[in-house]
Amino acid sequence: MIHIYSKTFSRRTKEGIKSIRRATSIKVYEDETNQQRIHFTDLEVIKYNRGKKIRLFFETYSCRERYSLIEYVIDHNDNDKLDRFFFALKKALKENGSELLGYIRLVDIGLNGGVHHHIVVAINYIDVKGDELPKHLKRTFNGKKVHGQFVRNIKKIINYYVPKEIVELGIRKRTFVRSQKYKEIKANSLNINDKILLD
Fold this sequence. Notes:
Elements: E1 2-8, E2 19-20, E3 25-30, E4 37-41, H1 42-60, E5 67-75, H2 83-95, E6 100-109, E7 115-124, E8 140-141, E9 144-145, E10 147-150, H3 154-161, E11 167-168, E12 176-178
Antiparallel strand pairs: 1-3, 2-11, 3-4, 5-7, 5-10, 6-7, 6-12, 8-9
């Protein structure tokens, strides 16, 4: 499809209002095969592109025998610098012979109006019994314990993340972030029938 034009019908606030983002413009595309014009809101385009990136992340790290996926949930604070969370996590992983291979971060609003971050990280496979995280993967942030758990069902988490509403934190406040590069583990020594996390 070819983008034809966009028409703005409202403006975004410059302040961080911590609410569900509303559509502000209409984008018109033309189907190259039949020249039919299709209308989408800017919000629909953003959600579509975000959904593609979420699916790509989980497809990249879906092999059980290569990767472990961990989800962390952190309450949002305007003064928080989440770079500190990732720095400390990378350090803990390195000290235990592993590394951060990729991640996504999604801002969400709970039913009670509380804003929080869902962070999913991909690391080298960890062979553990049960669902409890190893000690070095149990994290704190700003003096508070961070809820963390292994991702055991990728289909379920994709179906949870993709429909999420876009959160409005203000102009130039990113509410979805992914790692720029994905590091993958070579499969030379692995069986072609690798177990996938999609069940």
